Amino acid sequence: MEKRRVVVTGIGALTPIGNTAQEFWEGLVAGKSGAAPITHFDASKFKTKFACEVKNFNVEDFIDKKEARKLDKFAQYALVVADEAVKDAHLDMDTLDKDRIGVIWGSGIGGLETFQNEVINFNEGDGTPRFNPFFIPKMIADIAAGVISIRYGFRGPNFTTVSACASAANAMIDALNYIRFGYADMMVSGGSEAAVTIAGIGGFNALHALSTFNENPAKASRPFDANRDGFVLGEGAGAVVLEEYNHAVARGATIYCELAGGGLSADAYHMTAPHPEGLGAKNVMINCLKDAGVSVNEVDAINMHGTSTPLGDIAESKAVLDVFGEHAYDININSTKSMTGHLLGAAGAIEAVASILAIKHSIVPPTINFEHPDEKIDQRLNFTFNKAQHRDVKVAMSNTFGFGGHNACLLFKKI
Predict the structure, then answer these.
(1) Would you call 227 exposed, middle or buried from its count of C-beta atoms within 10 A (0-12, 13-18, 19+)?
(2) Is-above-0.70 flag for pTM?
(3) For this structure, is 275 an active site residue?
(4) Among residues 275, 342, 406, 409, which one is catalytic?
(5) Pairing mode of beta strands 101-106, 50-51
(6) Is 270 marked active-site?
(7) Separation between Cα atoms, residue 57 and residue 310, nearest integer Å
(8) What is the distance of C-alpha 44 from the center of its chain?
(9) Cα–Cα distance, 257 to 266 (Å, whole number)
């Protein structure tokens, strides 16, 4: 079966460094850190007292107060960015065939805050089971895709992918293939997460996964730096409108770029640690290039998973060298997590938006906070340290890897 081409015609973002796609991009290019002391709860007794929170966000500016109360924060975020992407795509709802438009979303955790609060409230009570009637629909991860489809009446394929931090990238690959093989003409896809909570920070602290650089949160997320000590938890959402190429051309849509391919793989190694030689990361990039029909020498930029963990950054860097060989030194590599923190299941979505805008603006955002070279990482690689670099980006890759050994890779091409 011949695969149909798929393009990006709308984007949206709600992040720790900007509450729209444009603000997000400006924050990236400026090298802005979104890390700051936690305000969502009292973190004074936690090992990590900071995170990359969404700032100056009032849900009632976007969603009716009554409706917002029925949604966990992660689903609120999803609706906001989906609305931005749909408006950006300039969809005429009166002429589109809504049976041919679907929503595939990603979230690694879903309604964690809702679950946490309901359990806390029960524990503090007298044992009588008093739960919010919206407890279950607020908590379940699939509800974000559901409420987006309800908002617009999109009746095509509709579900949520869960693969930890690869969730949003998995969702976009699924959306890509549903359009490619004729099951839909258009898909709203992306991911959202709102895990900066008591349970989220406490749980990741217990895993020793988070940075504890409390004396200077803005510099805590420092991918590839020898002194990195873990990731910084972030929150937010990103969305894309994906569309079959001829469908987009026929309605006169503005096209950002082509989503040319996606790759998937598994480490099959450890619950939380990456394969030490980056085997899964290597395979996922090879699979992505093959799916897109792109050679290693065509890739200009890679937004790496780059979480700022001691093991992960080394393994991924090795994988890039294994896949790209000498061409690896000609690629602009970066980790936007140095600015946004790690949005878990939503990471792939905002990093896809960053890759799309890098192609549009011919700028690769920096990897900030680098000071100390790591002798275990090849310093000849161009990690775009500390300052954005101008480059004609024709082909950009975006990597996302999750606990459980889940790996996903997206490849975007300039039209």
Answers:
(1) middle
(2) yes
(3) no
(4) 342
(5) unpaired
(6) no
(7) 33
(8) 28
(9) 28
Measured from the Cβ of residue 193, the count of other Cβ atoms closer than 10 Å reads 34
User: What does the alpha-carbon distance between residue 324 and residue 150 come to, in Å, rounded to a whole number?
Assistant: 43
Confidence category of residue 2, pLDDT binned at 50, 70, 90: confident
Instruction: Write phi, then psi, for 67 (nearest 5 degrees).
Output: -70, -40
Of the candidates 165, 257, 288, 409, the residue annotated as catalytic is 165
Q: Say which residues have a Cβ less than 8 Å from residue 23's Cβ, sequence separation at least 6.
A: 13, 17
- Angle (CA) 79-84-85 rounded to 5° is 100
409 is catalytic: no
Residues in the chain: 415
CA torsion 102-396-410-53 (nearest 10°) is: -80
AA letter at 288? C
Q: pLDDT tens across 232-274, in order?
A: 999 999 999 999 999 999 999 999 999 999 999 999 999 988 8
Instruction: For residue 80, give the nearest of 160, 141, 21 by alpha carbon.
Output: 21
Give the type of residue at 267. D
CA distances from 173 to 4, 143, 169, 246 (A): 14, 19, 6, 19
Compute CA 64 distance to the chain's CA centroid, rounded to the nearest angstrom: 26
State how far the Cα of 191 lies from the Cα of 166, in Å rounded to an integer. 10
Buried-exposed string 81-98: b where 16+ CB fall within 10 A, e elsewhere: bbbbbbebbebeeeebee
Q: Please tell me which residue in 247, 275, 305, 406 is annotated as part of the active site.
A: 305
Under DSSP, is residue 190 helix (H, G, I), strand (E, B) or coil? strand
